[in-house]
């Protein structure tokens, strides 16, 4: 199967492209690394991906360039986009709508003719704050930031394409972590600070609860979505188990790294919800998937990767 992976220079995209190639698929890895939040790192990741057997690279800006490389794809895994709640306010609003909404609109339009299977990445942020129970795919959406609003619009576009006959499904990822995580993400910042002997930078009081999800679990769910027959228009949560408080995750990182668990509190981020919690029943039914990597084991793996990069 020929699979196009957009956002292939990114954290999740690189892992997914490699896994699909290892599974025997012909992978066209698409990205525009120069537009990344961390261009030198993205450029290096994209170049390294070109050395993986079965992967071909293509530089493409989905919001501007001609999308003819999608014409003969059997499947498209659309992971490209501009991430981040913090950076989506103010001037960042236009950028997230360009790179998330407009890029997705053009991609889905390009898929209308040959109609490959399309897997679109969304985010747990569309739910807003989870209450006293896990968020289910049928719950009302309550986006609390421009980034979350852009993902709601991405899902609306996917639903419209599905109604028009495009074989599209949506995966809602929850707080992904693991080796090669972006430098702006929480665990990356925490681990680097711990290994430097600095207080860990913490937005808010650390009582926020998250369904942390190891990237290996996310990859397994995504590859299953490509290879299985999904109902057209399906939306599926991809999240870890019981939510864990950020402060507890910090204490675990400090223990694994062998350093004191000291933090430097910073003002909370607007739109940073107090709790995410994934109901993964639908993922089990449709993908045969459940999260398998415990937080402690996953963090130990990520810390080892950080040390290997030093």
Protein described:
The protein is 38% helix and 17% strand. The chain is of the alpha/beta class and 310 residues long. It has a domain at 2-174 and 214-239 and 278-292: 3-Layer(aba) Sandwich (Rossmann fold), CATH 3.40.50.720. The strands form four sheets. The protein has a seven-stranded parallel β-sheet with strand order 3-2-1-4-5-6-11, with helices on both faces. A two-stranded parallel sheet has the order 7-10. A two-stranded parallel sheet has the order 8-13. The longest helix has 19 residues, at 92-110.
Shape: globular
Mean pLDDT: 95
Task: Give the total of beta strands.
Answer: 13
Class of the domain at 2-174 and 214-239 and 278-292, according to the CATH hierarchy?
Alpha Beta
What's the CATH H-level superfamily name of the domain at 2-174 and 214-239 and 278-292? NAD(P)-binding Rossmann-like Domain
* N-C termini distance: 38 Å
Rg from C-alpha positions? 18 Å
Low-pLDDT segments, ≥5 res: none
Helix run count: 9
Largest sheet: 7 strands, parallel
Strand arrangement across the biggest beta sheet: 3-2-1-4-5-6-11
What pattern of helices and strands is seen along the backbone? EHEHEEHEHEEHEEEHEEHEHH
The percent range for strand residues is: 15-25%
Helix percentage: 25-40%
If classified by CATH, what would the architecture of the domain at 2-174 and 214-239 and 278-292 be? Answer: 3-Layer(aba) Sandwich
The helix-and-strand class reads alpha/beta
> Per CATH, what is the topology of the domain at 2-174 and 214-239 and 278-292?
Rossmann fold
